[in-house]
Amino acid sequence: MRSINSLPEDFSQNDQLPIRIVSPDYGHLSAQAADKYGLTHRLPYYFLLFVLDGSIRYGVDLEEFEIGKHEVLYSLPNQIQQLPLTAHANDYYKLGFDDECISKLPRQYPFLLNPLNRQKISFSAVAAKRLQAIFQILLDLLKTFNTDPELILAHLNSLLTEINTAYFAAEKRPADDRLAKFIGFKLFVENNLVDHPTIKSITEELAISSDSLYQIVKQYSGLSPKEFITNRLILEARRRIYYGERSSVKELAFELGFNDPDYFSRLFKKVTGKTITVFFQDLC
Fold it and tell me: Which residue intervals define the domain HTH araC/xylS-type in the entry (predicted)?
């Protein structure tokens, strides 16, 4: 049985791993296949875009990003991705892979939880050269459908390690424990989102005080824990509305764990500045 967070059928370029790479002259879907997914879709897998030359604009969760030379944009499963209408950058690599690949790697990569709320990462010229070399090796390996998956996973591990290191480059070592707690908080919220986790349940899970939790979440997100959870719930609502995954406000509210649709509607307007009806109309 395929995971929800997985590459679509027939996307993979390896007979044992769900992974696909694209460059200007390799790996693009046929026009017919691309039309099936459209310019806007909910991602079921991890996506990396590394620009070597030029720039390009991508949308992630209704926010537009410009990715320039030596920058990586990454999107996570369940995020809404909006592909650009204009031509691609002059030179780039795109990589898609899913949870099955992650499960076979020797370590974890905290940047994939985006604890610092950074959707793109910049690299020095030296680091970008290393990154380019790894992407190119992966491309060469994936040109052969039956390549030994161990070779692919070894280089995927190197790639994600490089990106993870760059993501946290500005963080100082003494903050590691606090960062680990924030990642634990974010993961707990993701896993229990529609149950509306309480502050007490989170502090018990992380074995910290409510004051410590507040300080840590405020440091890394700029929000209180309660505000963070609320914003994450409303982001999920926006995703589902944008992707046409609701038939009524009442149904959407119940899906997201709200017993009172009217309260949910008021909360949505408070966070977004728009009613659900206006938000939906603006998308049409």
Answer: 183-282
- Measured CA angle at 87 (ends 81, 91), to 5 deg: 95
Residue type, 88: H
Q: Which of 213, 175, 211 is nearest to 197 (CA)?
A: 213
The domain that contains 56 carries what CATH number? Answer: 2.60.120.280
Q: What 3-state DSSP class applies to 252? A: helix
* Residue 164: CB atoms within 10 Å: 17
**Where would I find the beta strands (DSSP E) of 38-99?**
40-42, 46-53, 56-60, 63-67, 71-75, 80-82, 91-97
Please identify, among 149, 167, 185, the residue that sits at the C-terminal boundary of a domain. Answer: 167
Q: Is the pLDDT of residue 32 over 60?
A: yes
pLDDT in tens, 105-138: 998 888 998 888 889 999 999 999 999 999 999 9
Let me know how long the chain is: 284
8 A C-beta contact, residue 238 and residue 279: yes
Domains in the chain, number: 2
Return mean pLDDT, the chain.
Answer: 89
Is the domain of 140 the same as that of 178? no
**Angle formed by the axes of helices 176-191 and 199-206, nearest 10°:** 130
- CA–centroid distance for 79 within its chain: 6
By the 8 A CB rule, do 163 and 72 touch?
yes
